Amino acid sequence: MTSSASMTTLPAGAGAAEFAAEVTATAASLRTFLHGLPGVDKVGADQRAATLATRSIKTTAKQWALDLAIRMVDLTTLEGADTPGKVRALCAKAMRPDPADRSCPPAAAVCVYPALVPTAVETVRGSSVRVASVATAFPSGQVPLPVKLEDVRAAVAAGADEVDMVIDRGAFLSGRYDEVFRQIVAVKEACGAAHLKVILETGELGSYDNVRRASWLAMLAGGDFIKTSTGKVSPAATLPVTLIMLEAVRDFRELTGRQIGVKPAGGIRSAKDAIRYLVLVNETAGDDWLDPAWFRFGASSLLNDLLMQRSKLATGRYAGPDYFTLD
After folding, report:
1. pTM of the complete model beyond 0.90
2. Backbone angles phi and psi of 40, in degrees to 5
């Protein structure tokens, strides 16, 4: 795969902020940079992802991989019928995924709508589980910027540790990169100390080249994570798309010194899938990203299969889905 960092260099001592300021000085310079990124070899990306998906891990490493994947899960409920009771149950599962096994690690976070952030914050208090909230008119992103910023400020004021925003795909696909950039910058400022995950909605971007451009745009604008999908659009996360995003964060750190996280979301349902993604992370970005601080799964249905596989390792038999709570 082509390295996107190879197309430019930084002055000695310069870092991410200086690089972003240089690249985004004008709308024209931002467009020139994004369209100057090396094109993605689609056949090569697909083949590389497929090859890595066939890799296996040793049985002795499987327990470690399953526990790491559990620690990377963002348990999510984003439905119109969400209630405080449902959110409390989700938080309880995030804190104690397997109540019968105290050695089972907690999930990374729970993700809810802004109105339910106070319930989540109260429930997880004292634990390591973080509270994330979708904002900016999730999942469409099609409202004026002031409304998006109020959405973010409300979530942060309620105690959200992380904010998941959606980019305006209409603006991006129309080539209005500067508009998307300015919106991400404004949302990042509204987040304050909360981490910002920028959802690209890769299923609507149309090409791998656009996935690479959107990834760099989000990183240049100050996003702390780049995320594939809302989970409301198909296709959601795929191995080739995640490969391209991992290449982008790898090259961005090499160029600027700033590390950005990656979150594939939607469609990851089995422990086997999760391990494929962990192999992809290790082989593409490196083991620095094998940590919940830098890689997450947005896949609530994944957790029960991870727990089933974990139980099988311990007991030699499958416990079955009825032994674990529904999400």
Report:
1. yes
2. -85, 130
Is residue 164 flagged as an active site residue? Answer: yes
Tell me the domains of the chain and their CATH numbers: 21-323 (3.20.20.70)
pLDDT digits (tens, 9 = 90+) for 99-112: 989 999 999 999 99
Length of the chain, in residues: 327
Which of the residues 93, 188, 197, 263 is marked catalytic? 263
Task: Give the span between the Cα atoms of 110 and 284, in whole angstroms.
Answer: 27
Q: Which residues contact 126 (CB under 8 A, 6 or more apart)?
A: none
Backbone angles phi, psi at 68, to 5 degrees: -65, -45
Active-site entry in 227, 251, 273, 305: 227
| From 98, 164, 224, 251, active-site residue | 164
d(CA 292, CA 275): 14
Pick from 296, 318, 311: nearest CA to 94 = 296
227 is catalytic: yes
Q: Please report the DSSP string for 255-296 in residue order.
A: HHS---EEE-BSS--SHHHHHHHHHHHHHHT-GGG-STTTB-
pLDDT band for position 299 (cuts 50, 70, 90): confident
Q: What is the pLDDT of residues 160-201, one digit of tens each?
A: 999 999 999 999 999 999 999 999 999 999 999 999 999 999
